[in-house]
Every structure is written in C-alpha cells, then in structure tokens.
C-alpha cells in the first residue's frame, strides 16, 4: 500500500516533524507529527495567517516551488504569516529533509509525517473536508487569521500564486 501511495504521489507530483528547532551547531532537528498534532499546531497560530505545505525531498515540483514558498512567508512574516511544512518522506530520511529545509532557509514550523511516506488521511479530511481523489504533492493550504481555509493550492506554484493566496488570507474579515 505504501508503495502504491508513494508512486501515486510521485506521478501526480510530476504533472511536509515536530516543530523544527536549531540544535547544537545550528543543525535543524525534526520530529514526526500526525493530523491531530498538525491541527493543534495550527491552532497555536491563531490570529496569524498559516501556510501549510505538504512536500517531499523526492518530489521535483515540491523542491522547485520551495524557494518561492519560503520567500513569500518571509516577505509577509511581519504582517502575521507563518509557515508549517509537512514532508511525506520516509521517517529514516529526516536528516535529508532537515538539510533541505536548512538550505532553503525554512527555519520554523517543519514537520515530517508520522507514518513516513504513507500520508495520514486525517490531514486531508481536515483541510479538504474529505479525502481527495488525488493526494498529489505539493499541496499548500492557507488558513486565514480565524483558522478558516482561505486557499488550496495543488501542484507547483509560482511566487505570485503564493503571494496572491497570502494576500487573500490577510484581507479576510
């Protein structure tokens, strides 16, 4: 089952640890999380816009969009925008994910799916209201300041697409 899901995610990707922190020597440390934990984490950011991105190091579109995602979050951080990332890499690839995040300058809110490469369907039941027909990544969800879904971005995005979605969430009443 894990192989089928991973293959499906990779195919759709072609057409993501507890709160990340800096350990000794500035190394990024990552810890697993599940859907319940992610929902609780997002709730701690109440009053702020929360960008949740699902990705993997093996996903070319995920890697390609990541610099734009991080740049958008940093541009709007002072206006109250936070970034949470959930990688769907295997748990034994935590170090690879941490290194990639560090290289990208993603210094807050990084997670790895507790089930590794087999996604917790609870994420999507919460964020999509159901399990979508396709679980392709990258997937980005933007929550407004009240914790409501403002935008769902499926597939690789550009800087302007991320920025437009963040601006929409910031403007929500």
Task: Walk me through this protein's architecture.
By secondary structure, the chain is of the alpha/beta class. Helix content is 41%, strand content 20%. The protein is built from six helices and eight strands. It has helices at 2-14, 35-43, 60-76, 94-104, 121-128, 159-171, and strands spanning 21-22, 28-29, 32-33, 49-55, 81-87, 110-113, 139-143, 149-154. The strands form two sheets. A six-stranded mixed beta sheet has the order 3-6-5-4-7-8. Helix 2 crosses helix 5. The longest helix is centred in the middle third of the chain and has 17 residues, at 60-76. The protein is globular.
Extended strand count: 8
Rg result? 15 Å
Task: Bin the strand percentage.
Answer: 15-25%
Spatial order of strands in the largest sheet:
3-6-5-4-7-8
Q: Return residue spans where pLDDT drops below 50 for at least 5 consecutive residues.
A: 1-25
Shape: globular
Percent helix: 40-55%
Order of helices and strands: HEEEHEHEHEHEEH
Between the first and last Cα atoms, what is the distance in angstroms?
A: 42 Å
- Would you tell me the structural class of the helices and strands? alpha/beta
Largest sheet: 6 strands, mixed
Mean pLDDT: 85
């Amino acid at each position: 089952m894990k192989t089928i899901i991973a293959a499906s995610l990779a195919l759709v990707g072609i057409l993501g640890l507890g709160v990340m922190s800096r350990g000794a020597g500035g190394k990024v440390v990552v810890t697993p999380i599940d859907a319940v934990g992610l929902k609780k984490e997002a709730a701690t950011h109440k009053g702020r816009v929360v960008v949740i991105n699902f990705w993997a190091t093996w996903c070319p579109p995920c890697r390609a969009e990541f610099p734009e995602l991080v740049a958008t979050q940093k541009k709007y951080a002072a206006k109250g925008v936070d970034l949470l990332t959930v990688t769907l890499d295997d748990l034994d690839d935590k170090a690879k994910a941490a290194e990639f995040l560090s290289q990208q300058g993603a210094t807050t809110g990084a997670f790895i799916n507790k089930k590794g490469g087999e996604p917790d369907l609870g994420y999507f039941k919460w964020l999509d209201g159901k399990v979508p027909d396709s679980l392709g990544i990258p997937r980005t969800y933007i929550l407004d300041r009240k914790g409501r879904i403002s935008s769902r971005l499926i597939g690789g995005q550009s800087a302007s697409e991320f920025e437009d979605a963040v601006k929409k969430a910031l403007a929500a009443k």
